[in-house]
Amino acid sequence: MNSGLTAYLDSVKSRDPAARSRWDVLFYPGVWALGLHRVAHWLWEGNLTFLARLVNHFSRFLTGIDIHPGAKIGKRFFLDHGFSVIGESAEIGDDVTIYQHVTLGGTNPTTGVGGKRHPTLRNRVVVGSGAQILGPIEVGEGAKIGANSVVTKDVAPGQTVVGIPAKPVPVDVVHYSPGFMPYGTPCGEDCDPVRVRISELEHELEELRKEVAVLKTARQPQPKVKSA
């Protein structure tokens, strides 16, 4: 158990340059929220729903993080800073990183659609601060959700999405941001799909103008050369 806790603390430390030691990580609210959720989820699976909710409310009071006891969370989950909400039927894989003020929200229960209402995050997903992932959608393995994005459709494995609504980033973020990408948001390049496309169209328009100018010049009548 001790080696498992040490490995978990080291995995969090590797994703947070602010952590100076394992003791720093041990007092993170996200670490406490996950530990208490493990207890609440165990009680929930045993149909002790009242006790599970009691642990859930205590955890929310203590950490500011609301994780429903029914949510399924994998190994080495890191919720940085906190103030996030994870719904009942949410599923989170291994080595997932979520930053502050994130919501894994569900569909409207008044529609009568039961069962799976919340998102599924596969392994190694990174979710930036303020992102809202809504409905029973799937975020593929290794995908990244940019800060303040609103995601309502599936995200392909390895894809990076940003914006409202979230759209794929039209740049090679692996090239620009190798390794772990903090907050799931590429920096140093233009990652707004609309702005990038407008820039591409402006470039194409400029090239077309140059070609038209060349054609106009070629079609102009040449002055006749008088014979001697």
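[next item in queue]
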Amino acid sequence: MDTAGWFLNLNGLHFEDPATETPTVGSVEDWVYINMTGDTHPMHTHLVTHQVIGRTPFNVEAYEEAAEAGPDGVPGGIDPTPFATGPMQPPAPEERGFKDTTKANPGYFTTIRGRFDLPAGVTAPQTYVHHCHIVEHEDNDMMRPFTVTPP
């Protein structure tokens, strides 16, 4: 299966598609970046700082096949946990604080946890983005909106 262009989107969607991540103000969520490519992607979240929970190695080929990957990759919401090939690895010491950018390494799914607070005086809903911080990737659709919604 040719996966040459799959790094260019998140959740099998394009930037202009409506936001599918809609955390509520003040909520804490775990997000999982699933890397099926050969590159490490520095994933950046606007508005929210997060913590790296860990990285889990997984069988990329089995995941792609089971998820019925299409030309835009694997759609979001498909749990990679059944395809794990080892235990979750804890973050490195330098990654244990709050971050706005986290490395998503090839052949791993990376779990981050963030709290979705809005700045003082800002009311929901508000739309922000998360994206790969490699300029060529963020310029070519590896960026998605998320909308922080009222509680």
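[queue empty]
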